[in-house]
Amino acid sequence: MKRKAYIQAAMQVSMQQPLSEQWMEEPVVGSEPFVRAVNPTFRDFLPANEARRMGNLMKRALVTALKVLADTGIEHPDAIITGTSLGCMESTEKFLGALVENGEQTLSPTFFMQSTHNTVGSALGIHTKSHGYNTTYSHGTMSFEMALQDCLMQMQLGKITTALVGGHDEMMDSYFDLLRKAGHVGLEGMVPCGEVAVSMMVSTNDSADRLCEIAGMCIFNSQSADDIKVRIESMLSEASMTAADISAVMTGVNGNAANDSFYTAMVETAIPGVPHLRYKHLFGENFTASAFGVYAAAHCLKRGYVPPFMYCGDRPLTMEAPQGILLCNHAADGETSLIILK
Fold first, then answer.
1. I want to staple 329 with a disulfide (CB 3.0 to 4.6 A). Which of 1, 137, 253, 290 is the partner?
2. Count of alpha carbons within 13 Å of 4, Cβ hemisphere only?
3. Does pLDDT of 145 surpass 80?
């Protein structure tokens, strides 16, 4: 029998108010091409002598994770699964800078030790004293989805019942300039480039205060809206759902015409007649920004309310108490993920 999986809690650090859902009432609007995340008060969660040796990405990941653990009462999850495309880029840049400035002599090992992609997952395991399954996925724009899919597979195999799943990435001014020159971010009309730290607790145990159920998920490669429609129909059938159970579709529209046109065509072809929602204008564009989509959809389902500024279009369709949200993340190379939350 297929085991059900639920998102028990989810927390974020972004350009919005950190560790809060205040964005649902009073969103912060980023007006610059690159907007850094608003850091919470780290000393409320981490000892000062430890925090000063950590980069921003690691501290954000730890704080969001510790808040999720406190909210759920799960001190030691069975698994810690992390998705990050760039890893601890700030520490990497500092290490390479010191390497050049000091002529490869008398280098501090701290930045080197914290420059690997799996540093975040390791730190989470140490701080939570969780010694079970711990892995990191670095798969570009599908990094978070790969982490979430691994979590669901481990649960279906009966190997775990709880998992701390996260999507974490930071951005440096130097790398932002490279991405802007390549035309990936910073174009006129695009949402700001941002930073992401999202942690969520996924469990096979249902509870009254959970956010939502993960009803289905798949990752595949396709440039065809018709192919995506077939995938959606298959997922709905497997989840004993119909198209009528989907209240809205949330996609990664970001103001780039080439990117947004695919999503618009996909919604009109694959699942027409339902509201089209967006989230990147609230949290920014990033390699693991899709983690924000899952986070935002989960909280919308929990509250039974979708803020009006999340609708796409000048005259959006509205809904009351959404029951199911389909999330779609599509990359230029055709990599696509579909996630159904209900």
1. 290
2. 14
3. yes
